[in-house]
């Protein structure tokens, strides 16, 4: 299972302790429930016949959008870890363990997120001008880098500083210096220079993540994904619990 590989660890940013805490297998009950048995949706032929353009709008979390290329790219990387998983399971994992929690937090921390993005853009300009001075150099594979960073390496050109990329609770500016993609992911040894700009409050907890998801409104736009996203996620992200911590939404 994916949870065994991830181990619920986040080696890149200790401030981000919980992007998988609710949905990931091995880290939360709801995640386990979604993967312990195949649902009727997994047996349905509908999603297998559906070929979507990369810019197809899949869903919204409040006003933030998810497109098919985002889902499929994550599903491709997840499939390299678990090649026995059906495509619908990979899409489900991409959504419920990564994209949906990420956007729920992003929608909940609007000001802090915008400030972090502004800082990341300024820093990228400096990194390009000063050949990466002050960046953090990391090497390793999936276990050392964590899933999100490991996944991103395969999407970037070697040697170029990326534009700010949003992952769970933070923005990254990164330069891949070695892409060591192999058939056996456990043998990979990548190298990357990176700076990160987190926007989670210092006292953020798992409960804050739960509440952010409960405040968020998930709207499924692409009909074929109705069977991909489990009912418990739809219920959780129904936007019905609107009580805000300290009475203020950032």
Q: Strands, helices and their partners?
A:
Layout: H1 2-6, H2 29-35, H3 40-43, H4 46-49, E1 57-61, E2 64-67, H5 68-81, H6 87-108, H7 110-129, E3 136-140, H8 142-145, H9 147-153, E4 165-167, E5 170-178, E6 190-198, H10 206-215, E7 218-220, H11 231-236
Antiparallel strand pairs: 1-2, 1-7, 3-6, 4-5, 5-6
Helix pairs in contact: 5-6, 6-10
Features:
250 residues, disordered N terminus, alpha+beta, 11 helices, 3-stranded antiparallel sheet, single chain, disordered C terminus
- Structural class designation: alpha+beta
Q: Round the Cα radius of gyration to an integer and report it.
A: 18 Å
Ranges where pLDDT stays below 50 over 5 or more residues in a row are 1-41, 242-250
What fraction of the residues are assigned to beta strands by DSSP?
15-25%
Number of DSSP helical runs: 11
> What share of residues is helical?
40-55%
Q: Numbering strands along the chain, what is their spatial order in the largest sheet? A: 3-6-5-4
Strands, count:
7
């Amino acid at each position: 299972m994916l949870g065994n590989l991830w181990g619920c660890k986040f080696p890149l940013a200790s401030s981000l302790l919980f992007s998988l805490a609710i949905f990931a297998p091995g880290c939360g009950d709801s995640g386990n429930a979604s993967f312990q048995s195949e649902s009727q949706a997994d047996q349905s032929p509908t999603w297998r016949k559906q070929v979507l353009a990369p810019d197809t709008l899949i869903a919204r979390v409040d006003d933030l959008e998810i497109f098919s290329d985002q889902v499929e790219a994550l599903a491709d990387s997840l499939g390299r870890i678990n090649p026995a998983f059906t495509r619908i399971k990979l899409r489900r994992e991409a959504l419920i363990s990564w994209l949906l929690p990420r956007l729920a937090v992003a929608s909940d921390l609007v000001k802090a997120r915008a400030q972090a993005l502004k800082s990341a853009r300024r820093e990228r300009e400096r990194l390009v001008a000063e050949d990466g001075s002050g960046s953090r150099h990391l090497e390793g594979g999936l276990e050392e880098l964590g899933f999100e960073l490991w996944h991103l390496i395969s999407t970037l050109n070697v040697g170029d500083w990326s534009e700010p990329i949003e992952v769970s609770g933070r923005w990254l500016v990164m330069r891949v210096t070695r892409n060591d993609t192999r058939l056996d992911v456990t043998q990979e040894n990548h190298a990357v220079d990176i700076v990160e700009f987190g926007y989670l409050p210092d006292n953020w907890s798992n409960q804050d993540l739960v509440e952010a998801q409960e405040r968020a409104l998930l709207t499924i736009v692409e009909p074929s994904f109705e069977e991909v996203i489990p009912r418990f996620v739809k219920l959780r992200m129904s936007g019905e619990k609107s009580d805000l911590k300290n009475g203020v939404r950032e």
